[in-house]
Design goal:
A hairpin with a 4-residue loop joins β4 and β5. With 469 residues, the protein is of the alpha+beta class.
């Protein structure tokens, strides 16, 4: 071998050592960086090591987990709102207090203090039901805001992915900078996958197309624009179906936001499900409970002094409600101001709301009848409560049980999807950067560097000897 060939090979070896050192250094420093793919050198090119099938499965799992997390968040809000019979201030607890107050007043109907306790308990119950309704609508508004935020992020991510496609089309293949562009695009697509479940398809010049699993084209050359009009304040009667809440558009064309819609399945779809299904169902049941209370103590009930068309102990802002369902009735439920706490007419709780003068102070018949009506088993008028025959307390307990069941189901789903996601990420991580392997590779590079450097030193010594002759 001539000295020139030896020098050229040594210099080439040093250049490759420098490239290999750079790759190993990059792998070690970015081992825990999301979206970073391990680099290897093949020939003179730097390539990323990625399992496309695993990456696709993990992204679909990301969407499932994000959806499950969103549903659990709203289910927990409902569960905290409903509470249990043992929780002070919960709906079931206040219902029990109201029932106990009626029994206590019936035991001593002459006691102004006990009659006032009935008024306080009834007023507190009505206010708590109204507050719960308001919390449900606030949660719907939060879901609407989350939808708007996710869609703003989605549109920005699609623009960024399109820009990275263009940058990769111009990039020189097999370089470190090109690998970094691929990493950036992977991170962008990973973020998209949490919002909506996606599939990818390769395109010419390192491009990529994005489709939702339900068939919507998000990116294929040009990015799609997903539209939505947020609604800052939401009331119970407002739905997408009646045009009072915003729906989805893709490039200006209206699409379904339901569970089978083109953008369903991820965090975005879960927010729509919370806004349009889970929370409205809870609202409808609460409205049914309010309607049941109004009926139990209204005209035709135990108080014969209430004329048809007049209000009983509970009403819709001072008037009888129309036929059910009455969206938002629970938020408008009030205790009859004629027997408000501290009123001088509390005797009407004992003698009848329509009575014109106090009766016998020891007459507990009406108070006992009111308690009996509260505990009477009856089929609800509002279809949202189903057809089961229950007492008023039973309706509150059933409401709490349904909310708890929703929470448990959401927790089970999150646990299941989280376990799958964790398993996929562990497999993905195992195929990523192994620090021990990279350090071993660094030792090999050091040895190769020393060998190439030794060749150059030997050639230098031979040249010096020749020149000294």
């Amino acid at each position: 071998m001539s000295m020139s060939i030896a020098v050229n090979k040594a210099l080439l070896g040093l250049a490759r050592n420098a490239q290999a050192t750079s790759v190993v250094s990059s792998n070690l420093s970015n081992a825990s960086e999301p979206g970073y793919a391990r680099r290897v050198i093949v020939g003179d090119q730097i390539l990323r090591v990625v399992d496309p099938a695993l990456l696709s499965d993990r992204r679909l799992s990301d969407a499932e987990m994000a959806a499950a997390q969103t549903m659990q968040d709203y289910a927990q809000r409902l569960d905290a709102l409903a509470g249990s019979a043992e929780d002070p201030g919960s709906l079931q607890n206040l219902m029990s207090i109201f029932d106990s107050a009626l029994l206590s007043a019936a035991a001593d109907p002459a006691s102004e203090q006990r009659l006032n306790a009935v008024a306080v308990a009834g007023s507190d119950l009505a206010q708590a039901i109204g507050s719960a309704s308001g919390e449900i609508q606030a949660a719907r508004a939060d879901a609407d805001t989350a939808i708007a935020k996710d869609l703003a992020q989605l549109n920005a991510l699609l623009e960024e992915a399109a820009s990275l496609n263009q940058a990769l089309a111009r990039a020189q293949p097999g370089t470190a900078s090109t690998a970094s562009l691929f990493d950036q695009r992977q991170k962008v697509i990973d973020a998209v996958a949490e919002i909506v479940p996606i599939r990818t398809a390769p395109r010419d010049q390192n491009g990529i197309a994005l489709y939702t699993t339900n068939g919507a084209i998000l990116l294929d050359g040009q990015p799609a624009t997903v539209g939505f009009t947020p609604t800052p304040v939401i009331a119970a009667q407002m739905t997408e179906a009646n045009g009072l809440l915003g729906g989805l558009t893709i490039n200006g064309r209206a699409v379904s936001s339901g569970p089978k819609g083109p953008l369903s399945g991820g965090r975005l779809g879960a927010a729509f499900e919370a806004r349009d299904v889970m929370l409205p169902e809870a609202q409808a049941r609460l409205d049914g409970i309010a309607y049941d209370l109004i009926e139990r103590f209204g005209a035709g009930g135990p108080d014969a002094t209430i004329a048809p068309g007049q209000i009983g102990l509970f009403s819709e802002l001072g008037a009888p409600p129309g036929p059910p369902p009455v969206p938002g009735l629970s938020e408008r439920l009030i205790w009859n101001p004629a027997v408000a706490p501290g009123s001088t007419d509390l005797w009407k709780l004992r003698d009848g709301l329509g009575a014109t003068a106090p009766g016998e102070v020891g007459d507990a018949a009406l108070l006992n009848a009111l308690s009996d009506s509260l505990n009477a088993l009856r089929a609800p008028t509002d279809p949202a409560l189903g057809g089961s025959v229950r007492s008023a307390r039973g309706q509150f307990a059933a409401f709490g049980a349904s909310i708890e069941a929703t929470r448990i189901l959401s927790e089970d789903a999150l646990t299941r999807f989280s376990a799958r996601n964790t398993a996929l990420r562990e497999i993905e991580f195992s195929q990523g950067v192994d620090s021990d392997v990279e350090l071993q590779r660094l030792l090999e590079i050091e040895q190769n560097y020393a060998a190439n450097a030794q060749v150059l030193r030997s050639v230098d010594e031979m040249l010096n000897q020749l020149l000294s002759i």
